[in-house]
Amino acid sequence: LPLVGALVAGSLGGIERGHRGQPAGFRTHALLALTAAMLMVGANHQYDWINAATPESVVRIDPVRMAHGILTGVGFLCGGVIFRQGYSVHGLTTAASLWTTSALGVMFGMGMWSVAIGGTVLSLIVLAVLRTVDGWLPQQQVAEVTIRYKREGAPDAAEIRQRLSALGLSPSPFSNRLIKKGELIEHGATVRCGSLKQIDALALAL
To answer: How many CB atoms neighbour CB 151 within 10 A?
Structure first.
């Protein structure tokens, strides 16, 4: 029963991640939860590993060490689904769901049914329901803007900054450089905005 419970819990989380097109989906989450549960069930029955002639006074059972090993190993797996693209970091939620799935497997393996089932329900609420709530919350967008002009008659950084401010964009300090053997001048900055529509307005203005 602990293995079946862990398999179901991991599969449900994996279905949600797979539906979102994430790299760690249905089978990854299912296997992770199942493996964590198997290891914890084995750790809880260590007496079955030991020869009957072994004195009980020398036997020390510590399932917590197994749980620590599981969560440490999951850290390497989570690192494989996180990647950075420009200023955006992807895969953090999937990594967190893998970590949660391993914890659920540990709970099922230990037979803590109320915590395991409650954790499964709450994790699904966080992944599926709170995603909608997150979309409603005000968020600040960040974009990297690079503008290149022919060197003759090109506006200076102050004028570019003024144009950005007029569109409601808040730029960081500008970088300025000459490229193409001095034929072009390039202004670059990271800008913060309330909506990507402001970036579209900048592109249209340029």
So the answer is: 13
The three-point CA angle 163-175-88 to 5° equals: 85
DSSP structural state of residue 91: -
Between CA 1 and CA 4 the distance in angstroms is 5
pTM over 0.85: no
Q: b vs e for 104-135, b when ≥16 Cβ sit within 10 Å of the residue's Cβ?
A: bbbbbbbeeeeebbebbeebbebbeeeeeeee
Q: What is the pLDDT of residues 35-75, one digit of tens each?
A: 899 888 888 877 666 666 666 666 666 778 888 888 888 88
Give the list of residues 6+ apart from residue 1 with CB closer than 8 angstroms, or none.
none
DSSP state of 81: T
Amino acid sitting at position 2:
P
CA 33 to chain centre: 18
**Contact predicate 41/107, CB 8 Å:** no
